Each structure stands twice: as C-alpha cells, then as structure tokens.
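User: structure tokens for this one?
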Amino acid sequence: MASLFKKKSVTQLLKESKSETFSKTLGAFDLTILGIGAIIGTGVLVLTGLVAARDAGPAVIFSFIIAAVVCGFAALCYAEIASTLPVSGSVYTYSYVTIGEFVAHLMGWTLLSVYILTASAVASGWTGYFYNLVSGFGLEIPKALLTIPSQGGIVNLPAVIITLVLTWLLSRGMKESKRVNNAMVLVKIGIVVLFIAVGAFYVKPENWVPFAPYGLSGILAGGATVFFAFLGFDALATSAEEVKNPQRDLPIGIIASLAVCTIIYIAVCLVMTGMVSYKELNVPEAMAYALEAVGQNKVAGVIAVGAVIGIMAVIFAYIYAATRVFFAMSRDGLLPEFFAKISKKTGAPTFSTWLTGIGSAFIAGFVDLKELSNLANIGALLTFSMVGVSVIILRKTHPNLQRGFKVPLVPVLPIISIACCLFLMINLPLTTWMYFSVWLAIGVCVYFAYSKKKAVISDDKRLEIKKAE
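Assistant:
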C-alpha cells in the first residue's frame, strides 16, 4: 500500500525545471495570450447568447461573474504552485509531490480526458462557423461531410482537417507555432473589441428590462453552465518548463488571462443584451445575429471570419496541453517512454503531439459529444480541487520554498476553492458521473497493469529524456 503513495522529491522536481529538455521561449505576454486563446472561444461566441436566452436574461453578466469567482480561487492556487514547482504536468505533477504516485496517475489520466475532449468539442463547434463563412461566398459542402454518422452523415470533415492542421503546426515546435497562435488570439480579441465598439452605439436600455427575468435560480443555473467558458487558464501550468522566468511569468499569465477574459465576457454580455431582447438570443452565433439585427451585416461578416480564426486558438491550446501531460507522465515511467521523446529538429514531443491530434480529430469527426459534454467539466473541477489540496499540503511540508506568488489566507481560500468545485461537481448529472467513473476505472487498470511496475523515482532515470532524430 505504501508504494501507491510514493512521492517525488521537491529537489528532484526543481532539478527537472532547470533541464534543457525544452527550449525556454515563453514570456509573460506569450502565456497571457496562450491563456486568453484557451479561454475565449465557444464561451463568448456561443454561450453568452444561449445562457442569456434560456437561463439568466441580461443578468447573465452575474452568471459569468459567479463562474469567474470560482475559477479565480482556483487560479490563485494554480499561480502559487506553478511558480513554486515550474515543471510540466500541471496538477499531475503537483499531486505526485504532495500526495503520491497513484493519485498523481489518476490526475494525469483525468487531465488527458479534459484536454482531448475539449479540443474535440471545440473542433466540432468550429465546423458550424466555417460552414456559415464559406456559404456566404456561395460555396456548398455536402451535409454528409459536416455531420457525424449518428446524425445521418459520414464524418465531420472540417473538424478533422482543422485539428490535424493545428497538430502539424504544434509538431513544428513551440518557438515556431507560438507566433501563429499569438496572431490567432489577437484576431479573436480584435473581433470582440470590434463587436463591443460597434454594438455599443445600438444599445437600448429598455432591452435590459427585466434585468433578471428568471430570478436568482436562473443566474445560478447560468453560472454552472458558463463555468465551461472559463476553462483554459489551467493549461498554462503544463507549459512551465518552456517559460523563461516561471516564478514571475506563470502567475502573471494565469491571473492576467482570467481577469482579461472576465472583463471581455461582461462587456460582450452587456452590449449583446442591450442590442436585442434576450429572448432572441437563443442562437449559436449570437454576436453575428445581434449585429445583423441592427443592420450591421458587413461587421457581422468580419466577426464570422474572426470567429473561424479565433476558435482555432482554443483547439491549439488544448492539444498543446495534452501533449505536455503525456510527456510528464512518460518521463516518470507511468506511460511508455516514447511519449517523452523530443525531436532534435523541432524540440517538440512529436509522437505525443500526433497521437493527441489524431485522437482528437477522430473524436471530433465521428463521435457525438452531446452526452459527454459535462465530462470535461467534472474532470476540470476535480483537478481544480486537487490544486487547492496541493497548495495546503505544500505550505505545510515545505514552508520555506521560494514562491513567485502566494495565495492569501491559506488554508481558508484554498478550502473555499475546493468547496466551490465539489458543490458544482455534485450538481452534475448522474450520467456524467457514470462516464467519468468508467474513465477512472480504465486509468486504475492502466496503473496496476503497467504504470506501477514501470514508475521511476531516481533522478538520473527521469532526466534521461532521449531526443529522437
């Protein structure tokens, strides 16, 4: 039993953080852009309108604020521990050093499901924006190539293609691909700013009356729904070994990206619900719809183009995050060593990148994710809880470690973070718990069949990362 809770040493982790396995190319600005790229996507382009129409009305801004507060508690915990232990693997690594090997394996296993499923879900949603864009130019794509078999089609081909293109980009290495990602995110921010700047002139205050038509229960229901819109900042923790100055840059990137996105969400919601009645926003492309409703068709077209480009940044960020979890688990022997092989030419874990990309492309192209949509939520909430636990334990066991950022009011604030996450988990559907239990059961089988026997704790073995030709 004791072997299940073998821990990594902090000294060993800090040695890994100084290794030259990855090129250290990311600064605070790159991290903030990567975080914004992962967070702003379907949340601002889809959920804003749907939640306003179905749950909260104009008071949807409070739904986003509630979700942001819950994520904010977790973000503070991430900022402390990521700046203290700047190593790839995120909560998988944090669990390994604070609780032990078995829990760490399950956390890594959970992270893989969160990142891969989210990348697939976003790619599936991207198809709708892409189809509407090309349709505007008179180009038609057969419906059979836009829908999955269970919906009467053959394959969601655009989702497959865009996922594989972004995978190829990531396989070229982070130094090359970060420029493209930064450009995609800046385009996305640009279209949101454009929407706010143009839409503000068409706001009618009477559209904000009644402000909370569905009451407090509607606002809370909306908060649970839009929680998904804030996922993404946690992916920054997986990039720790590629950050130039992790003690300073990681906390800035995590907290700044969440703060910027919260402000953007509130501004978009206020303008959107002021332009048209919330009752009309039950559409997947609420921003474009609101602009068309006030006669700004050209601007709506620009928004559509920007959405196609911007959502690609979300897929990019989640594929990237999954590959770094694969890398960290493989380096520790919990997965086969070829997951940790780094290409000499690109400096990227090529095999892990392509495995993640092909898997995500397959799910996006052929699998109906509707019933599994909350699986990413439950996994993320569990990992957020574990980060809070890790902060409390690490403060107790290693109080003198250098921390680039410190969570205030420990252990009170981390406990509040854990309680909020557990409360949202309890309120998820029973089917979600069933799917998640099956995934964890598979993870347990993998651990006892392979990982437990192959896990390595020695410094020398873990740091021997082979670079493939």
